From TrEMBL:
<keyword id="KW-0560">Oxidoreductase</keyword>
<dbReference type="InterPro" id="IPR013154">
    <property type="entry name" value="ADH-like_N"/>
</dbReference>
<dbReference type="GO" id="GO:0016491">
    <property type="term" value="F:oxidoreductase activity"/>
</dbReference>
<keyword id="KW-0479">Metal-binding</keyword>
<dbReference type="Pfam" id="PF08240">
    <property type="entry name" value="ADH_N"/>
</dbReference>
<keyword id="KW-0862">Zinc</keyword>
<feature type="domain" description="Alcohol dehydrogenase-like C-terminal">
    <location>
        <begin position="196"/>
        <end position="267"/>
    </location>
</feature>
<dbReference type="InterPro" id="IPR013149">
    <property type="entry name" value="ADH-like_C"/>
</dbReference>
<protein>
    <submittedName>
        <fullName>Glutathione-dependent formaldehyde dehydrogenase</fullName>
    </submittedName>
</protein>
<dbReference type="InterPro" id="IPR011032">
    <property type="entry name" value="GroES-like_sf"/>
</dbReference>
<comment type="similarity">
    <text>Belongs to the zinc-containing alcohol dehydrogenase family.</text>
</comment>
<dbReference type="InterPro" id="IPR036291">
    <property type="entry name" value="NAD(P)-bd_dom_sf"/>
</dbReference>
<dbReference type="Pfam" id="PF00107">
    <property type="entry name" value="ADH_zinc_N"/>
</dbReference>
<feature type="domain" description="Alcohol dehydrogenase-like N-terminal">
    <location>
        <begin position="25"/>
        <end position="149"/>
    </location>
</feature>
<dbReference type="GO" id="GO:0008270">
    <property type="term" value="F:zinc ion binding"/>
</dbReference>
<dbReference type="InterPro" id="IPR002328">
    <property type="entry name" value="ADH_Zn_CS"/>
</dbReference>
Amino acid sequence: MRAVTYHGTGDMRVDTVPDPTIQHPRDAILKVSSTAICGSDLHIYDGFMPEMKTGDVIGHEFMGEIVETGPEVKGLSVGDRVVIPFNVTCGRCHFCERQLFSMCDNSNPDGEKLEKLYGQAGAGLFGYSHLFGGYDGGQAEYVRVPFADTGHLKVPSHISDDSLLFLTDIFPTGWQAALNADVTEGSTVAVWGAGPVGLFAIKSALLLGAETVYAIDTVPERLRLAEQAGAVAINSSEQKPYEALMEKTNERLPECVIDAVGLEAHGAGVLDTVYDKAKTVTFQETDRPHALREAILCTRKAGTVSLAGVYAGMVDKFPIGAAFGKALSFKMGQTHVLKHIPDLLRRIEEGQIDPSFLITHRGTLEDAPDMYKTFRDKTDDCIKCVMTP
Ligand code: NAD
Ligand code: ZN
């Protein structure tokens, strides 16, 4: 089959690789109908993700049709149309039972590498490095889905792939970001990063009843889409977010703050690369301030900072004084996708939201190398790339 494969920093290719096979009785094989490139894939593309191997199949946002099931797979049949969450989850451990799916105990066979760094390891991930199980991803014609009996959401045939695909990751990620920020009726919210995750955080905050949502970015097309989604745009290359937010909120500042940027903003890498890079970046000196530091300084006293953007390793110069001094709360982590998607599917079915609004680029798997570059460089007004194998 054809699949998008990793060949080093900035080098994604389309290769012919062996078709996946059932390896465990709870596996299923999915024929991919649609797959997307995520901002998290850019951490791989940018060389921030260690333990990648040449030839690894990338991709964790995919859906399609079940074409084969292992003997222990119950409740899922050949021909079923499903969305697959980006986290690989066993569905039966202490954490899965509590719907803390991204913390699954049993789905990351490489977990001990992360335990050395973090003390404990979370779930495996599709198409994402040998720190997270080294599972082949879904930017491919077919993909093996481990624990497929519990790790899927069946979706109705009358809704298009475009409207369902983002249930795999970025819609629930934006949703969890808003919940983690304690957004409720009447909240004032600010979202750093108007990329796909930021745009879903904006939509989610408004669905949860936020009164005003500010969107901070520098890319005009993304800010335009944020405005269309109902946010007030702040272009941080034209206006300092702190000054803009003080003025717009009558000096109260937003109490719910979301970082939908992550590693990209400050150029600090992960794990072994982070120390060197972090040393060369001071928040005051960069012309584009570190999003998280800026977000903390812009949060109202007693407010909540929610990190949806991905961080890894050590990042220095965290303004702990401001966080303590203003009695801030922090929530973060990878999204517990399965926890949120039944509710989000219902909202799509009811017409509360159509997640396809941010698709700007389409192609086949063969277009992946070009699409990665366009999405990375944010050229051609690119917001989200979807491929049909
Ligand atoms: P993206 O790269 O397309 O978007 C990031 C946006 O942030 C861009 O529009 C960029 O211009 C903007 N930005 C960069 N630096 C900024 C700064 N200093 N101030 C304001 N804006 C700034 O990526 P995406 O797909 O939207 O993903 C965003 C983040 O969310 C990534 O780190 C990704 O890994 C992470 N993510 C997390 C989860 C999770 O489970 N928590 C899931 C999916 C994605
Ligand atoms: Zn993703």
